[in-house]
Amino acid sequence: MKVVKHSFDGVIVGAGGAGLRAAIEAAPHMKLAVITKLYPTRSHTGAAQGGMSAALANVEEDNWNWHAFDTVKGSDYLADQPAVDILCKEAIDSVVELEHWGLPFSRLESGKIAQRRFGGHTVREGEAPAFRACYAADRTGHMILQTLYQKCVSMGVTFFDEFQVLDIKIDDGVCKGVIAYEIATGDIHIFEARAVTFATGGFGKIYKVSSNAHSLTGDGPGILYQKGIPLEDMEFYQFHPTGIYRLGILLSEAARGEGGILRNKDGERFMERYAPSIKDLAPRDMVSRAIATEISEGNGAGPNNDFVYLDLTHLGAETIKQKLPDITDFVRTYVKIEPINEPIPVQPTAHYAMGGIPTDVNARVLSDATGTVLPGVYSAGESACVSVHGANRLGTNSLLDIVVFGKRAGQSMVDYVSSTKPMPLSDNAAEDLTNKIENLMEKNHNPEFSVPRIREELQDSMEENAKIFRSEDSLEKQTKILSNLRDRYQNVTISDKGKVFNTELLEAIELEYLLDMSDTTVASALHRKESRGAHSRVDHVERDDKNWLKHSFAFKNGDSVKLEYKDVELGNYEPKERKY
Amino acid sequence: MDVKVNILRYNPETDRKGHWEEYILKADPDERILDLLHKVKWFDDGSLAFRRSCAHGVCGSDAMVVNGENMLACQVLVKEVSTPIKIEPIRGLPVIKDLVVNMDSFFDSYKKVMPYLINDDEPGERERLQSPEDRDRFEDTTKCILCAACTTSCPVFWTADTYVGPAAIVNAHRFVFDSRDNASKQRLEILKDVDGAFRCRTAFNCTSACPRGIQVTKAIEDVKRETLTIN
Lengths: 580, 231
What we know:
Chain A has helices spanning 17-26, 64-74, 81-100, 140-155, 219-226, 254-257, 271-274, 284-296, 317-323, 325-335, 397-418, 431-442, 451-465, 472-490, 503-527, 545-548; strands spanning 3-7, 10-13, 32-36, 52-53, 115-123, 128-134, 158-161, 163-171, 174-182, 188-192, 195-198, 231-232, 237-244, 261-263, 308-311, 344-353, 357-358, 364-366, 373-379, 384-385, 469-470, 536-537, 550-557, 560-567.
């Protein structure tokens, strides 16, 4: 295989919101490359819809402490409170900065940035829903991604588009660079870089029904996990309440923020029973559980009683057109329903990983549960776990997370690069990876061990056994299934033996990350004998602060997973019963 | 139901030119064209190459020609097209493999129009103000996802690839009509050029092709008219 060598000070892997925000911070101070397996504007940040919260108080009184309270309560008290303070305090300047860079927010009559209500965000610590989410219609993520990319273009940031990073080189605990595969040619590229940020997004593709893009396969967490870095809080995976039935395409919480109502087969507004004060605007974990409960009790709609309705019919055509144009178009395109006149069939959809690569508040990757920093390696955005989302992320806080901690990752890269010298990588640094690829290419193809078959069984079984409600039985069962899939993966084969755009090869490598993400999710979920946030154990229904107010760290231990724990960092808010 | 799909295949490592391959697939009428491509790739021929990511029309990866028209494969359902379904790469850009084209010149044209806010005035500690009416002036063109469906449907672009093309003009429009931007004049100078907006012959192909429903031809007309205001 042809091997090409490059020398940079810093490399950012991933060009979604977090990667681009880090690049804007780091690029003026070092020789920097941004490497992405897509084109930057294809990143999944662009699919985010509803908004980005910040206590701007443009509509009503607000302050960042209330935002912090809501975030901590929403997290079911698992978030680290000093990190949440940073998130909510820096939110305000982050939104203003994006506006200054050109982000076309929707506007109020006053000319200020428009703000809307969103699940779990309240004024005065739970009094009423807050107008806190800054938005651009229902395409806020698209606008953030475009604005950050535009800023990078104006700065002349160096991009390697459609290059997929497949390995990191860490010698004696020090980062030296990454190895990437050029999708168009099949060439291998060694990138010397002493500072590396992983901003590779989530891994929703471990589930069958997901709002996530095909590209979201946990690449960054997978690469580091295979090098012995633990993954934090993997049992906490968010299911968004309103995915389009069967397809999983996201219908933003903004639909409920603007007044949309969830109804069961009898037309009942069932959230009144589950969250009497904020009803349909309860946090996502609670609403998804409510929907799953309605369905399991026979209150679901349709011939199989397996969905509920999102009803927007009372909002009026004008509000829908102005504020929810994209999501209503999705419904027209994929379900052929007119949401102005008819309610929309929805079901919970795998959406967001609260867990991921453990970092401190400066995006520095931690290599163990005691907080040891791995020099030169950073992570931000969904691939990272700071933790600001704890056991359940509030809507809009992910777009905030990517800019606040993306910026901090960029700053940390600058600090590190300015205080260290270049570290050379040997010309044979890509050997492990080229061997792995050549091995895959040489094996005769056997459809029995094809990527799609193993992946389909993985997604189907995770959907069945490790979704919203889990039990020791379902998780034990899934552990066995994963072990069997892992065995089969050892024999995985591909049919395409070419060099040019061999995406079958890349899907085979991504499948290993999906298996890693599933292993750690299931092992962490099996060990946590309580219910908290998005992790609901039917055999341990109560939250147990005495034993479980802690973060899990899942380490690779041969083919199994080893778990360690770290206490949650508390702050202003003592854990209380979580009611809405 | 059985669906007949014809795909224009080309592998630079083995083929001198493209050729049509036929596939008979079991498909549900509600499935996306992208689902058909996945069926071929996952269960028939793993070497089939195409780009895709979000699979619901927001990332812009999978623009292709389906039955002669540009569209996103993830945004059109089987029941909406006639069979046999003919799938080809978008036109006017060099094919890398199968349905994948080289996008370099497309992004170069985009970068040429300075697609970023330019305003050196001190913005202050809070957001700049902008009235909802001013915000509305460029609403339509903020929706662009750079999928290239418009540019590669343009007959002028097919014959003159130096033409910046509809997508670049759409992205210039997004800033030219933004009340916060101060560099309209520079952008309009670029678009007054021989390869700029006046190459447009108002064929409206771009408007029909846009998967985001942007009134592309109208945006180009707006830009043309605006160039007349600068000296």
